[in-house]
Structure formats: C-alpha cells, structure tokens
Write a structure and sequence with these properties.
- This protein has 398 residues and is α/β, with parallel strands linked by helices.
- The chain folds into 2 domains: 201 residues, 3-Layer(aba) Sandwich (Rossmann fold), CATH 3.40.50; 165 residues, Glycogen Phosphorylase B (Rossmann fold).
- It contains 17 helices and 16 strands.
- The strands form 3 sheets. The protein has a 7-stranded parallel β-sheet, with helices on both faces.
- It is globular.
- It binds uridine-diphosphate-N-acetylglucosamine (UD1).
- Uridine-diphosphate-N-acetylglucosamine (UD1) binds next to helix 1, helix 2, helix 5 and helix 12.
- Uridine-diphosphate-N-acetylglucosamine binds next to helix 1, helix 2, helix 5 and helix 12.
Length: 398
Amino acid sequence: MSVYKFMVVAGARPNFMKIASITSAIEDHNHSRRVPQIERILVHTGQHYGEQMSASFFRDLGIPSPDVDLEVGSSSHAQQTAEIMKRFEPVLLEHTPDVLIVVGDVNSTVACSLVASKIEYPSQRGRVRPLIVHVEAGLRSFDRSMPEEINRIVTDALSDLLFITEESAATNLKLEGVAQAKIHWVGNTMVDTLLKHRDKAKESKILSQLGLQQVAGHELRSFAVVTLHRPSNVDKRESLEEILDALLMLSQKIKILFPMHPRTTHRIREFGFSSKFEFYESLQPLVDSTRIHCIPPLGYLDFLCLTSNAKLVLTDSGGIQEETTVLGVPCVTLRENTERPITVSTGNNVLAGTKKENILRLALERMEQKVRPNRPKYWDGEAGTRIVELLSRLVESS
Ligand code: UD1
C-alpha cells in the first residue's frame, strides 16, 4: 500500500484550531484504511509558546504532540521569519514530505512556504520539492501595513494549491492571475473545530469562576468580551488610548471582560494605562467597577464558552469575526477593513474602525440587536475531511 508524507505546520495561536481539524481528518482517513495511507509529521515553529498561548490549545483540542518543535520564540518580524526558515530547512530535508500544509497568515506560514518553494530533495520521482498547500488562501484586507496581508500575498504566490473559505478569496486570487485549477473552495477548518468542541465548551467553569451567573441572576448575555492585539491598534499610544476610552465609556453600560494578549499587556504597562483596568492574574468574580475587567489569555474551551454567552464581542482578530458569525453573537470589529467580508455581508459583523465615537455608537446599537447564527457555504464541519480526501486523491494520481 502506498504511503505519502504530509507535513503540517503550526506556529501561532490562531493556527492551532485550524490544524486541529486537519490532523484529526488525517487520523480518520488512516483509521478507515482509505488509500493512500498518510504519514503525518507535525511541526510547531514555537512562534507562540507556553501554557496560555500554545500548550493549552494542544490539550483542549486533542492535537497530537508535535514531531518537531523549532522553538523560535519572539523577536522582530525579520528575525523571527529568518529563524523559522533557518530551523525549518533541515527538518524538510530530513523528513522529505510529499505535501506541506501551511495555514492562515502568520510569520510561520510565510517562512515555511518560502523554504519549501526553493528546496529540492531526492524522491522516487527524482529531485522534487513538496506540494505546497495553503489553507485559508486568498483572503485580502487590501491593507499592506498589516504584516498578515504581506504573509497572505506571499504565501499564496508560492503555493501550488489554494484552499479557500469564502467566495471573495476566489475573486481575489483570480484578479491576481492565479489559475482556477489551483483554487479549491473547501470551507473553514476553524469552524470545523468550533462545531466539534461546542458541546464540550458548555462544560467550562469560566462563567461561574467569573461570578457571571450570580451577578446576572442566571441571566447570561449580560457582558461583552473584548480582544485586541493588532500592532496598528496597540503599538501606538494614541490609537490604543482612543480604543480604551471607548471601552471605558461602554463599561458604564455593560460589564467588559478582556482576556488580554501578551503584546497588549506589554503596551498597556509601557504606556501607563494600567489604571483603566482591574487586572487579575487568575479568574475572579467580577467586582462592581466601571473599569475594564482584564484576565490572562484564555484556553480554547473557556474562550468559546465566554463568547457563546456574550451579548457582544469587540475584537480586532480575524478568526473571532468568523466564530461569532457561526455562534450568532454580534461582533464589532475594531478595524477599518476585514479580509473576511462574508462575516459582514451575513449581518453578524460591523466594521467600527478605531475612532471612539464610532466604536461606542456601533457597540450600543449592536447590543440591542439580535443576530442569527450564520453558516456560510461549506462552514459545515467537514472542511478538514475535504482537504485530506482531495489531497490524497491528488498525490495518488500525480
Ligand atoms: C501573531 C500573528 C498574528 C496573529 C496573532 C495571534 C504574525 C505576523 N502575527 O501576532 O497574525 O493574529 O499572533 O495571537 O505572525 N508573546 C508572549 N507569548 C507568546 C507569544 C508572544 O508573551 O506565546 C509576546 C512577546 O512579547 C511578543 C509579543 O507577545 O513579542 C507579540 O507576539 P508575536 O508572535 O510577535 O505577534 P502577535 O502579536 O502574537
């Protein structure tokens, strides 16, 4: 029986929920003895690390332990990207995969596809490089000041197969001259993971740990959840202050919970904004305060439980715009643009930009509106399976 090697790369927090669906689909494929069998090699670049930003996701989502950990850690974009490339090249040469799967738009995604695009190793078919597959291809914010936009454009240009989550991605790729045959509309692996873990997330203790049932007399949807980490929002004093002031005004109307990304924590301390927050190192019942209740980054199941029960989510994340769409929780995006326009056209998400008045106006408006859960085409829990079955057919026939 033929066996093909699929290497899967993950580096940063938003990658983990995407690869979870792919590694699980590979396991199902092998388990049901479908051909060809797949040898899976999982590489963690170590772009994100530690319990809160990495290990808890592997545990919550049942992702197998990485076969290789590059342990690159944090540094500037150039240094981090270069370090991943240097450490990834020998790994490719050692394992000689037939297929390299990269997901999303982080530095690990672009670094590993760039190495793979220039490598050559001996195989039964002569000297080859792996087939490069980009999952979540074609998304564009049309804002090249975002590091992720550069990562998306470069990764797509280097990839042999482009697996897309929504129709706008096909349009973008065609406008960039990508051949139709390379583009496959497979669905959304992040949504696969959400649907699979939704029931388990209901068992999370986070609501009672935060005293939310007591505060609201069992009446949930009494709080808003905020996430913020984009460099354009948090790295500049004025931009961060403008957003935080909007949140402080909003906190007069609704409790705000802010699981804070380490980048944002560093900046808030550096800019001297700590007095705007109640900071907690562990989960504590909310106290009656108009300051923002700030907690450490949450694991996947706790965060899913929290957002599922929120009245409103305010975020600058890409993935959370998609998750709230499926959950039917109104989302106010703290950015001028989105690379995920389907979340806006379904009516779940609005772009508020970063000006105080707009954020406050839209947040207050959205709090009073009901939005229905939406499942755009192929956001059905089967994207990982489509990806693995399509790839196994392609490698077998190549
Ligand atoms: C990265 C991704 C971004 C993604 C985000 C999700 C790129 C270009 N950016 O941004 O697309 O939305 O992850 O979280 O790849 N830090 C820790 N622990 C960690 C990781 C980081 O403390 O596990 C701190 C470090 O001080 C680091 C800072 O957070 O300098 C920022 O981390 P970094 O990985 O550089 O970028 P993110 O802002 O997380």
